[in-house]
Structures are given as C-alpha cells and as structure tokens.
Design brief:
Chain lengths: ~325, ~325
C-alpha cells in the first residue's frame, strides 16, 4: 500500500510502498479515505518529539471505511486508562509508535472505531478527532461554560482553537479571539466571534478588555509572556484552560490576582473515551462542521506539511489518501 | 473602652481610650475576650495594604460574649454576595474599614455571629476564624481531597498553613511540609506530618519527591520562583491551591507539565458564609484545636506584632483583651 512514512532521522518523510497491516486480535484494518495533519505530525517529522521511532507512518486523524463499507471515525487516544481525570502512563496517540493514518490502510483497536457523523464530508470527518477531543475536554469538560459567558481564544486559526470557537458558539458564549494575523481575526468574526485583537500589539490586553468587558474563560495554547496578562483581563471566578505551550514558560504571573479573583487554571490534553463519544454526540446535535483549510493528495504531502509550517492555515490541512 | 488603634500613618498603632461602638440596626455589640493577629493586621500597620483609612481599630478574629453571655465566634468576611464561587465587589473583612476586634467591644452583623465550639478555650476560638475559613476553602472546597492522597503544605508555621495541616490530618491525607526553619518542620511532624523539607535547600524538590512519591495536592501561600517546581513534584491530575503570594510573581512555569499532567491551579481567598458554617461543623466534628503560638495582654500588643514580624511563630498569636 502507499504510505507517507518518516523513514529515518536523515531521510525524513517519504511516500513509500509498505506492506498492509497484519490482522491482529481486537484490531480492525480500515481503508483510509482522508487523513488530517496535526502539529504533532510536524514536530515528529522535525525530530522535535519525545521517543521517536523509525520507520513510522504518521497520522492521528482519519476518515475511513470498514470491511462492511461503513464510514468510520477513530478515537486516536489509546490506553487512556481508568481515571477520567488523567491519561495513564501507557497512553499514546495513533501515528507513533503505532503506524498512523497517512496510508491506504490503518489498523486500529475495534473499540476506538465509531460511525462517522453523517452530516460531514470525508475530509471534514478526518478533520475532527484530535482537534475535536482536545477542544471538547479543554472547553466543555474543564471550563464548564454557561450560555452568555465571555470567552477569549488565543491564536485562532489552528485546528483546536477553531473547534473551541465552534463549540463555544454552539453553547452561546460571547467569543473573542487573538491572532498575529489580521485576516484570521476577520475570518473568526465572520464565523461568529464578537471581536478580536492582534497579540503583537503591546496594548492587546487593554483593547480586548475594552471590547469584551472581561473574560469568564480563556482558552490558550501558547503560554509564554502573554499568559501573565490573562488574570488582569479575567472577571472574578474566571477559568483559564491551556492545552499547549508554543511560546514557552509562563513568567510574571501574579499570585495576588489569581487568589483575589478566585481564578482557576486548568492544564488539559486529549480526552477520555467517554469524552470522545460525548464530543461526537455534540458535533451531531449542533451540526458542527469542522473547518478544512485545504486538501492535498497523498503524494503531495510535502505541500501539506509546508502549509502547516507556514502557519498560514485557517482550519485543518487534510490529505486525500484515496488519490 | 480600651482599643489598639492604627492612629495615623505616622503615629502607627497605639493603645487608646475610644468610645464604645454605637448601636446599629442588624448589628450586635459583643464583649471581646480574645482576638488573634493576622498578617493582614501587620501589613495594614506597616501601610502595605490597599485603601487604609485612619484611625481604625484593627483585628479580624475574635472570641467574645454577647448580651446573653453566650460565647460567640464571628465570620469576619462581610458582604460575600450571592456567588459561591467568588466574593462580591463590596466584600471586606472585619478590622478595616469597620473597626475590628482589638478592643473591649466590637460591633458585628448579627448573621455573622455563631456559637463558639465548646471544646476550645477562648484563645483557641479567637485563633480560628480567618485562618480557618481560608484553609477550609483552599483545601476542602477547592482541592476536594480524598483520604490517602499526598499533600504538600509550603511555609508551615503560619495560621492558615497549620489549619490546612490539621484539616488534612482529619481527612487522613499524607501530609508533607516545607519551611526555612528546621524546628517548624519538626513540630509539624510531631503533629502528624509524614515529612518535610527546608525550602532554602536547592534540592528541596527532589528531596520531598523522594520522601512522598509525588503530590496529589499542594497548598501554597508564597508563589515566587519555587512555584515553578510544583508541577514537577505533582502526580498526574494534581491540584495546586494558592491563598497568598508573599514571594512575589510566579516565573518559569512550564505549560507542558501543566497540560500533560492535567494539573489544576486554584486561586482561593477567604470563603462564603455557608463555607464558614461548614468549617465550624468540621472543627466540631473532628475536635480540631487551633494551634496558639502565644498569648499577649492587650497593652502588650507591640510584643505580639513584633512576634509576627519575626516570623518565628508556630500557630496563632493571640491578644487577651480582657486583661
């Protein structure tokens, strides 16, 4: 079968001809239609990830067909474990160490396979799993939002941030966004955000406070210096949830603002199997359509990775594996 | 009546003869037996507090007798408001702007007066309110501890930290402490803590991790540089609660550790009226006896303030107002 494989540290990603997965007890081999990229794939391809093994077929997100031609979606978080609060030590994600979805066929645990939401195209289904579960746990499970509350989403444009935006709109939150790219702010406003600010503007915090009147929730994936401004623009009893840290360590965070305003900060990553099922129900109930930035043929995977590396995308970057 | 009053910015604290409080609708005038010091009193007396008004009688904690000679305790957090999650904008604490308990009589809202727990001396009753409610909300309400979990309490010796220790032991937690003072660690261990470390030791984090195997909860009042080591010594799904920030801003905090371990950080201050009532029931149920460091006569208030300023105390510093 054709597959996009991380061959070795020096040889990087290549389109290869690779044996079909072996049948395995408790696993189904499904035929991939579309597979979406995640930053995880980019970081692994650059060697910036813990415990990389070679060779490996990357890819965590997939829309596929099972042996009965049923269209399916896969929960890519394996071995969550028994604790709903946190993943177990053996937790891992489809697409390393197991071979992932950037291939014509992929072998996945039977209990991780769900019928795909009928209102979505194959590309949209593939855009959903990892971003969807991360966004759902971060916003819905951790922050427990109430209709009418104000939410700031930092770094709008990435897959998770956009899913948070769409979930928040379904829950009737007042959503504000930040980005370094004016056109992404405009696109978010067209989707339903009430406002947005450019975080490169030194007064972004004052500006977004003026726009919103303060935030009940902030969902962040950056960390870094900006994080210290969050308590100031939070309302009392606010919740700050973070699922990433692309800008590095948090500094200059005021304990006084945190305790006097009774602010909570939640670290969050991925989600449990029952949360994945809840997320799918939520997507179906509210007819949410994940935003696809672009679709590339499997052989054109380099363009897809370059697109992600450029940070210009607004939504998920998808590979059409059937082409 | 005799009272310890903060006379003016230049004149500082003085023992004065001051008029009895005026009768006021909804308030009772109670006769003070004992009153405990809080760091708040020290900071106000040094001018390091927002919105200081002069002259003012300090003191938030009190054991007193009402007009029927009933021994009473007072919830010192006024105007909490309707939201259990956070205090309202008009929230304030007995002992500025209202005259406080360092006087022979104090006027307090009727609904803030409770019967004092019978198993405590007057000095112990006065040691309870502000430290008790702060500790109860921080540990019990925010962290939701389960028997058998591991808890680190930083800066043991202060009133709140010691109440957290006593509540935690009642809840059958495994408690570890930190201090810069070896004798305070020893005293905590005699009270029931399983271990402790000196936080001036550069390897305190490694040492306390070795002792405990990692923490389900950390209760902190310092913030500062040490805070960044907390996620490393936390178990997955840990809760970090903070009610103070004496060491200033938090820096070098890793987002990756927070989200991957699904750690929550809770800012917490004081507590709601229903939490105060819960705290009293808890004290009575578990026969908890607040730790009194020392008792001074009212006229010797300077010695009491100097004792607090020296940071040598282990438990609450109390004024015997009847002497």
């Amino acid at each position: 079968m054709r597959a996009v494989q991380l061959v070795s540290e020096t040889q990087g990603l290549q389109l290869v001809d690779w044996p079909m997965p072996d049948p395995k007890e408790g696993f189904n081999i499904i035929q991939v239609s579309h597979a979406a990229l995640n930053h995880r794939d980019l970081w692994i391809s650059k060697g910036r990830y813990a415990g990389i093994k070679y060779p490996v077929i990357l890819g965590s997100d997939v829309c596929a067909f099972d042996e009965n031609k049923r269209r399916v979606i896969v929960n890519p978080g394996f071995n969550w474990g028994d604790d709903p609060r946190v993943q177990s030590k053996s937790f891992h994600i489809l697409g390393m160490p197991e071979h992932g979805s950037f291939a014509e066929y992929v072998s996945v645990p039977v209990q991780h396979i769900y019928s795909a939401p009928a209102h979505l195209t194959d590309a949209q289904v593939s855009a959903l799993p990892l971003a969807g579960i991360t966004a759902y746990r971060t916003l819905v499970i951790k922050c427990k939002p109430q209709a009418g509350e104000n939410l700031l989403i930092t770094g709008i444009g990435g897959g998770v941030a956009l899913m948070v935006l769409q979930f928040a709109l379904a829950l009737k939150l007042n959503v504000y966004v930040s980005s370094s790219d004016h056109s992404k702010i405009e696109q978010a406003i067209q989707l339903g955000a009430k406002g947005g600010v450019n975080y490169l503007d030194s007064k972004w915090d004052v500006e977004v406070l003026d726009q919103s009147g303060g935030f009940d929730m902030i969902v962040d994936s950056a960390g870094g210096e900006s994080f210290s401004k969050f308590p100031k623009i939070c309302k009392p009893a606010a919740r700050i949830a973070m699922y990433g840290g692309t800008n590095g360590v948090i500094s200059n965070l005021s304990p006084q603002q945190l305790f006097w305003k009774q602010i909570s900060i939640y670290g969050s990553t991925m989600g449990s199997p029952s949360e994945f099922a809840e997320m799918l129900s939520f997507i179906i109930q509210f007819k949410i359509i994940p935003i696809v930035d672009s679709i590339y043929e499997l052989a054109d995977f380099n363009s897809a990775f370059n697109r992600m590396n450029s940070k210009q995308q607004f939504g998920k970057i998808v590979l059409n594996v059937s082409k």
